[in-house]
Amino acid sequence: MNGLFISFEGIDGAGKSTHIEHLAQAFRDQGREVCLTREPGGTPLAEQLRELVLHSAMDALTEALLIFAGRRDHLLQVIEPALARGAVVLCDRFTDASFAYQGAGRGFDLQLLGTLESWVQRTEAAPLRQPDLTVWFDLPPTIAAARLSGARAPDRFESQPEAFFSRVAGGYAARAAAEPARFARIDAAAEREAVALQIADVFAARGWLPAEEGAA
Ligand SMILES: Nc1ncnc2c1ncn2[C@@H]1O[C@H](COP(=O)(O)OP(=O)(O)OP(=O)(O)O)[C@@H](O)[C@H]1O
Ligand SMILES: Cc1cn([C@H]2C[C@H](O)[C@@H](COP(=O)(O)O)O2)c(=O)[nH]c1=O
């Protein structure tokens, strides 16, 4: 069976974590091996880099390089081996987040991000490894902020002002417009159950899960 690489994207608080575990179980119920992972992070080394990126002050280039360094390790140690085994890789964020947060959010050079993407995502198995599907939780920043308010101590990204998240949301919209076949937009402002149904439809339409299996 072919591996499947699925990423989940959206601004902080968009609702990704709420739905990923249920999807993982739906795939397991179909007899699939599931690799549940995240970025930044996903390997011991990349988790250490995550701690730095989320909590230590640094300039935009340092931030981008650390994120892509972690991504390289994650891709080689976890994602590629899982895909080679035929597993379903469910990844909470991948490179679209770099274009949205570092590119659109911080104003970092998009061309340089493209160069890093092409270096880091070239593997023995793929000239440019990208997700087969990116589930994009689209949510206005005001709603996300309200959902997250008081929930946890904010990290370097979560403590950014609303204008930052408006730019990040615009960055995701631009990536989705550039690759409409890879992206599935979810109206994440809907009630939890309605969001789950939208996700179920996306997976059923691709024949990856039975119609009822994706709904929480
Ligand atoms: N459809 C929804 N309606 C209302 N609240 C929701 C909905 N979906 C998720 N939430 C709540 O919003 C908060 C953020 O959700 P969640 O942690 O799933 O987002 P996330 O995208 O994983 O965030 P982050 O990337 O910052 O970790 C949680 O408290 C969650 O219970
Ligand atoms: C992959 C990736 C992530 N980020 C940011 C986005 C989030 O604010 C944090 C991760 O936190 P989460 O609660 O696990 O979602 O990291 C980024 O700026 N660039 C990236 O490439």
From TrEMBL:
A GO biological-process term: dTTP biosynthetic process
Record key words, sorted: ATP-binding, Kinase, Nucleotide biosynthesis, Nucleotide-binding, Transferase
Residues noted as binding ATP in the record, renumbered to the chain: 10-17
Top EC class, one word: transferase
Classification via CDD domains: TMPK (cd01672)
EC number(s) on file: 2.7.4.9
Gene Ontology CC entries for this record: cytosol
Domain spans labelled Thymidylate kinase-like: 8-198
GO MF entry, a single one: ATP binding
InterPro entries to which the protein is assigned, alphabetical: P-loop_NTPase, Thymidylate_kin-like_dom, Thymidylate_kinase
Catalytic activity: dTMP + ATP = dTDP + ADP
Keyword Aminoacyl-tRNA synthetase: no
Keyword Lipid metabolism: no
Matches recorded under PANTHER family: THYMIDYLATE KINASE, UMP-CMP KINASE 2, MITOCHONDRIAL
Protein family (similarity comment): Belongs to the thymidylate kinase family.
Role played: Phosphorylation of dTMP to form dTDP in both de novo and salvage pathways of dTTP synthesis.
Protein's name according to its UniProt entry: Thymidylate kinase
Species of the source: Xylophilus rhododendri
Gene: tmk
